[in-house]
Specification:
The chain is mainly alpha-helical and 233 residues long. Among the domains are: 3-68 and 109-125, no CATH class; 198-232, Dihydrolipoamide Transferase, CATH 4.10.320. It has eight helices and no strands.
Amino acid sequence: MSTQSVTNETTLTVVKHLINGRDDTFIATATGLTVTAVQDIKISHGYPDLSKMEWSRDILERRINEPAASAALPSPTIRSAAPPADPRGTTRNTPRPTDPRPTVVSAREVKPSANELIVVASNSPKARTRALGVKVAALIGDLSQRLAAEERERVAQAAEKAANAKRLQRIEELEAELKKLRAKTRSTKTAPPLGAPAAKVREWASQQGIGCPAYGKIPNTVRDAYDAAHAAA
């Protein structure tokens, strides 16, 4: 039996049983429907979301009660009355009141979520439907894991990028400090002291009997001997 051949009253009974937590077998026995018909009603009326099922219940009650309320109301009696006389001897045409348009309440179709379909499929009497539900659940689980892994990878990459930026900033700061220290060292470094005048070294070498050319560069051995002799002094 499909949901199209089930009355609103029976559908309302099924929805109320679902809200009260009854299982498919109990509802099928209580209403005379097949388990498949009960499951069709579950899918189309928001199961297992309690708020959706309560919303479906209210819509069904409204559908059932509105025709009954309309049938119980007496038909209005329309009395014809002569239009009031005009003082000038003519009659005024009074416009006839229009009947109010009936309010049409359209039920919003409740589409089940993927998890709801998986739950319904797990209770299906057909093995193929149950197997399909298991496959869909596995795919959804795999998708969730992949999305979670991508999110963790994105967070890790963002953290690594921030750490690299921080390290580069620290390197730039250290290079700037080193540059300042080098500039300070160059400004405070003193030039090496100059050696004794060449004429004085030659004179000393002549007195000491050390050979030294009269012109040109003084040999390093002569200058070193001069420095050593005067340092000892």
